[in-house]
Amino acid sequence: MGGFFFFLCFLRIFKGCYKLLLIKTSGSIRTWAEDDRPREKLLQKGRLSLSNAELIAIILGSGNRTQTAVDLGKEILRSVDDDLRSFSKLTIHDLKKFNGVGEAKAVSMVAAMELSRRIRHSTPQKHEIISSSRDAFSVLLPLMEQLPHEEFWVLYLSNANRVLEKRKISSGGITGTVADTRLIFRGALEVGATAVILSHNHPSGKKKPSQADVVLTKKVFEAGDVMEVKVLDHIIIADTDYFSFADEGMIG
Q1: Residue 11: is its pLDDT beyond 60?
Q2: Which residues contact 69 (CB under 8 A, 6 or more apart)?
Q3: What is the 3-state secondary structure (H, E, C) of the chain?
Q4: From CA 223, how far away is CA 217, in angstroms rounded?
Q5: How far apart are CA 82 and CA 74, in angstroms?
Q6: Distance CA 33, CA 24 (A)
Q7: b/e per residue, 147-162, with b = 16+ CB within 10 A?
Q8: What is the pLDDT of residue 34?
Q9: Cβ burial, residue 56 (10 Å; 0-12/13-18/19+)
Q10: What sign results for the dihedral spanned by CA atoms 29, 96, 152, 202?
Q11: Is residue 14 over pLDDT 60?
Q12: How many Cβ atoms sit within 10 Å of the Cβ of residue 163?
C-alpha cells in the first residue's frame, strides 16, 4: 500500500514537471516572465530598449512548438545575416518558409515594412529644388528604396529646377525595366517642365550603369534636345548609394 502511494506521488510530481517544461518551451509570449515579454518591455522601458528580434516578435505574436516568438525572429534575421535591409525585402512567400509563420503573420510583417517605407516617402521636403545630384538622390531614394524589382522614375523640373512632379514611368523585374522615351516627354509637356532627371534602381545594390543604361541615357538626351527639354542627369539608386551620369561627365 505504501509503495502504491509513493508511486502516485511520483506520478503527480512528474506531471507537474512536465507541464512546467511545456510552459517554458512554448512559443507563446504570455507564458514568459514579465521582464522577458517584448510588449511589456516596450511599455516599461520604451521602444529603443527592444532588439530587432523582439520587435519582430511583437508583430509575430507567437512562435511555434519549439521556439518563442523572439527565437523565431532571430532565426528569420539570421537567414539574411542580420541585415535589416535584406529583411525588409523578404516577400510573403519567403516568410512563410519559416515554421510558425503562416500567411496572416507574413502579411502583417510585409505590411509593417511597407508602412515604414511609406512614412519615409511621405516626409515632406522643405525645399524640393535640385541643385546637385545629392539633392536629386534625396528626393528619389524614398521612391525606390528597398524595392525587390527595378522601377524607372522621372523628376520633372521648372526653369528654376523646382520639382513639379515625380512620375513612375515603368516597373520591371529584378534585372531590368523598360523606359519609353515618348512617355517621359509626354509627362514633361503635361506639367510644363523645362528639364528632367531620369532615375532607376538596381536591386542588386551595384550602382555601376549597364551598357543598356548608357544607351538609354544617350537616346533620351538626344530626344530632349529636339523637344527643348533638358536632361540634367540620370541617377541610379543602389541601396543607400547612387551613381550620377552628370557627375561622371556622361551626360551630353
Answers
A1: no
A2: 27, 29, 38, 56, 57, 58, 60, 61, 62, 63
A3: CHHHHHHHHHHHHHHHHHHHHHHHHCCEHHHCCHHHCHHHHHHHHCHHHCCHHHHHHHHHCECCCCCCHHHHHHHHHHCCCCCHHHHHCCCHHHHCCCCCCCHHHHHHHHHHHHHHHHHHHHCCCCCCECCCHHHHHHHHHHHHCCCCCCEEEEEEECCCCEEEEEEEEEECCCCCCCCCHHHHHHHHHHHCCCEEEEEEECCCCCCCCCHHHHHHHHHHHHHHHHHCCEEEEEEEEECCEEEECCCCCCCC
A4: 10
A5: 8
A6: 10
A7: beebbbbbbbbeeebe
A8: 47
A9: buried
A10: positive
A11: no
A12: 19
Q: What is the pLDDT of residue 113?
A: 87
Question: How many other β-carbons are positioned within 10 Å of the β-carbon of residue 70?
Answer: 24
pLDDT of residue 127: 55
Q: The dihedral of CA 87, 90, 94, 96: what is its sign?
A: positive
Mean per-residue pLDDT, 161-181: 85
CA 242 to the chain's CA centroid: 17
Alpha-carbon distances of 150 from 147, 171, 217, rounded to whole Å: 7, 6, 16
Q: Which residue has the higher pLDDT, 237 or 124?
A: 237
Please give the average per-residue pLDDT across 31-48, as a whole number: 75
pLDDT at 18: 44
Which tens digit of pLDDT belongs to each residue from 217-231? 999 999 999 999 999
Closest CA to 59 of 21, 24, 98: 98
